[in-house]
């Protein structure tokens, strides 16, 4: 289960100037008491819908989703995902055989979605991953696939032999996905355009421990945390943590300054948090012990957020890979008759094809 948690810490959290619609399909094997297939919908980094193979229901995770979409929408989504579920469960077994694996905890994942920037430009992407690593990605401009390792080259060649699916995926990503993204942004406008300033605390376990600057409860996600030493910017011995979601849809982030107690005594340090048009400054006089009852609320929110992501199976690592770039590999095909199914990545399409 630890490996699953590591996948989630890189979940994509977008800037206020970009709107994103993303779907994550995850098939698992070897994990007890966990759904074998999960679909999660995300808008601007916030969960908006969820389907799992245990309940076989797709449900809204935002009030405005429930208020604006009728039952026919949810029923059609469920029918589509039931078919996709079996495709993914079969595929994870096939990929396991590619790596000569017959047991253990393994995941087969698809991340796809689109982005709408404030200047009107758009992007679309679709990537498959296995066990938290890249496997195959769609290049919608050339209608080809990029293999990330030798085991994926077979899949690349088989999927490229059926060009029609790549063409349909391209149409979806460039048109229908953007249309739905605009609809969802309109439905959740009041929530998505809210502005909430962060609560900032300086935390320290004991006088000899590093000091952590913790900002939590802010929205939107864009925040800057910096340190100053005697009034001057200081970026040495600083560890900036990941941006994480809270259960209420707000965000949190930490920055830790690793200096010894003597350094603290000789200098004047402060943490500066900038969010929207507001700047919050905390000095060493405001340090709290991490075991104070008033402090752990945000930290508990972080743990809860990670647990929530584990439960819903979001493949955040795939988003992180997409941002860094997909590294291809070239290798010769072999005569294997194994078949992995490429799912048409349009939500509600109900289509898939074998290659």
UniProtKB/TrEMBL annotation:
Signal sequence, renumbered to the chain: 1-16
Transmembrane segments: 295-320
Domain Ig-like as annotated: residue spans: 198-288
Segments of this protein annotated with the region Disordered: 328-355
UniProtKB keywords: Glycoprotein, Membrane, Signal, Transmembrane, Transmembrane helix
One GO CC annotation: extracellular space
Compositional bias segments (type: Low complexity): 346-355
Top-level taxon of origin: Eukaryota
GO biological process: immune response
Family membership noted in the UniProt record: Belongs to the MHC class I family.
Protein name: MHC class I antigen
């Amino acid at each position: 289960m630890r490996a699953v948690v590591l996948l989630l810490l890189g979940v994509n959290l977008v800037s206020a100037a970009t709107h994103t619609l993303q779907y994550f399909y995850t098939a698992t094997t070897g994990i007890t008491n966990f759904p074998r297939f999960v679909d999660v919908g995300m808008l601007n980094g916030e969960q908006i819908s969820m389907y799992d193979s245990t309940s076989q229901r797709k449900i809204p995770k935002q009030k405005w989703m429930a208020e604006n979409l009728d039952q026919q929408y949810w029923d059609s989504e469920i029918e589509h995902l039931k078919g996709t579920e079996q495709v993914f469960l079969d595929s994870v077994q096939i990929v396991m055989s590619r790596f000569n694996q017959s047991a253990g905890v393994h995941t087969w994942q698809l991340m796809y979605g689109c982005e709408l920037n404030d200047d009107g430009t758009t992007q679309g992407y679709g990537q498959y991953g296995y066990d938290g690593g890249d496997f195959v990605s769609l290049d919608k401009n050339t209608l080809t696939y990029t293999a990330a390792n030798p085991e994926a080259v077979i899949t690349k060649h088989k999927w490229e032999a059926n060009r029609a699916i790549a063409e349909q995926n391209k149409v979806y990503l460039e048109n229908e996905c953007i249309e739905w993204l605009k609809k969802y942004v309109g439905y959740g406008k009041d929530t998505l355009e809210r502005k909430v300033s962060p609560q900032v605390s300086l935390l320290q376990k004991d006088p000899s421990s590093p000091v952590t600057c913790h900002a939590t409860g802010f929205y939107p996600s864009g925040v800057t945390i910096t340190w100053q030493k005697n009034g001057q910017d200081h970026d040495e011995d600083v560890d900036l943590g990941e941006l994480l979601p809270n259960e209420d849809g707000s965000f949190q982030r930490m920055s830790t300054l690793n200096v010894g107690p003597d350094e603290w005594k000789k200098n004047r340090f402060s943490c500066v948090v900038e969010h929207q048009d507001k700047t919050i400054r905390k000095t060493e006089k405001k340090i709290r012990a991490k075991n104070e009852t008033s402090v752990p609320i945000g930290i508990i929110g972080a743990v809860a957020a990670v647990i929530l992501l584990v439960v819903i199976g979001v493949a955040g690592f795939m988003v992180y890979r997409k941002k860094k770039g997909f590294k291809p590999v070239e290798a010769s095909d072999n005569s294997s008759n194994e078949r992995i199914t490429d799912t048409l990545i349009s939500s509600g399409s109900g289509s898939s094809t074998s290659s």
